């Protein structure tokens, strides 16, 4: 398991705030971090449909199970809980009660910022940094990591990065992005992402980007014909 630079800041924040919220992309290591940092707290994944159904049916009774607080993972799946959590922490006024994690979505960030304003410390966890990769005592190669990226599972389980990122992109397009904005043509959006990836480190030229995106679309239309 990788040591994360954010851990000490998260633990310190839990001594000062009743809630600590960690946002970030899927698979960036949020769950691993909070479970390692707060092993004494009950862990609840709101990705579980049964858990989510019970929480939605009776939020008050659901949260009453956790008198000393809990880790609530993937809270974007049930943002209705935020108002109930606000009431609990206002009444009990204890630090470090709830640790929340969520995929980085604009609506979730807005909800946390409004409902839990002044009650939560908010952190953003990204995939592994160069410093974190070097600190794992493995043989670090800059060029290798340019291609493998920084998602922990790729390194810990020695996954094929091509397959991992292809699957990750599909999940992002079909699930996460679809929940936030309406994308009429997913294939065209894939082309857009590939074109952006090919321009990393360059000044953005929107005219060139638009022309290349149009060319990709025309090629796909011809291929279908």
Short structural description:
This protein has 225 residues and is α/β, with parallel strands linked by helices.
* Count of the domains: 2
CATH architecture term of the largest domain: 3-Layer(aba) Sandwich
- Secondary structure: helix percent: 40-55%
CATH topology of the largest domain: Rossmann fold
| Total of DSSP H or I helical runs spanning 4+ residues | 12
Q: Report the top-level CATH class of the largest domain.
A: Alpha Beta
The total strand number stands at 5
Q: Could you tell me the mean pLDDT? A: 86
User: How much beta, percentage-wise?
Assistant: 5-15%
* Main sheet makeup: 5 strands, parallel
Adjacency order of strands in the biggest sheet: 2-3-4-1-5
Radius of gyration: 20 Å
Query: Structural class, please?
Result: alpha/beta
What is the element string, with H for helices and E for strands? Answer: HEHEHHEHEHEHHHHHH
CATH superfamily of the largest domain: P-loop containing nucleotide triphosphate hydrolases
Shape: globular
Layout of helices and strands:
Layout: H1 7-14, E1 19-24, H2 30-37, E2 43-45, H3 49-57, H4 59-64, E3 70-73, H5 81-92, E4 98-103, H6 106-115, E5 120-124, H7 130-134, H8 142-148, H9 152-156, H10 161-180, H11 186-197, H12 206-224
Descriptive account of the structure:
With 225 residues, this protein is of the alpha/beta class. It has 2 domains: 7-124, Rossmann fold, CATH 3.40.50.300; 139-224, no CATH class. Helices cover 54% and strands 11% of the residues. The chain contains 12 helices and 5 strands. A 5-stranded parallel β-sheet has the order 2-3-4-1-5, with helices on both faces. Residues 221-225 have low confidence and may be disordered.
């Amino acid at each position: 398991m990788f040591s994360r630079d954010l851990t000490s800041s998260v633990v310190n924040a839990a001594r000062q705030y009743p809630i600590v919220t960690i946002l970030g992309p899927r698979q960036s290591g949020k769950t691993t971090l909070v479970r390692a940092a707060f092993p004494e707290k009950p862990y609840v994944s709101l990705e579980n449909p049964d858990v989510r159904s019970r929480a939605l049916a009776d939020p008050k009774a659901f949260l009453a199970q956790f008198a000393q607080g809990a880790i609530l993972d993937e809270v974007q799946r049930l943002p209705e809980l935020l108002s109930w959590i606000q009431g609990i922490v206002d009444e009990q006024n204890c630090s470090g009660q709830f640790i929340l994690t969520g995929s980085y979505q604009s609506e979730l960030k807005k909800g946390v910022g409004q409902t839990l304003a002044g009650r939560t410390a908010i952190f953003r966890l990204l995939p592994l940094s160069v410093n974190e990769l070097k600190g794992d005592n493995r043989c670090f190669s800059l060029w290798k990591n340019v291609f493998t990226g920084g998602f922990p599972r790729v390194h810990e389980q020695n996954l094929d990065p091509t397959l991992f990122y292809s699957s990750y992109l599909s999940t992002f397009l079909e699930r996460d992005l679809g929940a936030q904005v309406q994308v009429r043509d997913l294939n065209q959006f894939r082309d857009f992402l590939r074109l952006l990836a090919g321009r990393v480190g360059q000044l953005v030229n929107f005219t060139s980007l638009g022309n290349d995106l149009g060319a990709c679309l025309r090629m796909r239309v011809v291929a279908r014909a």
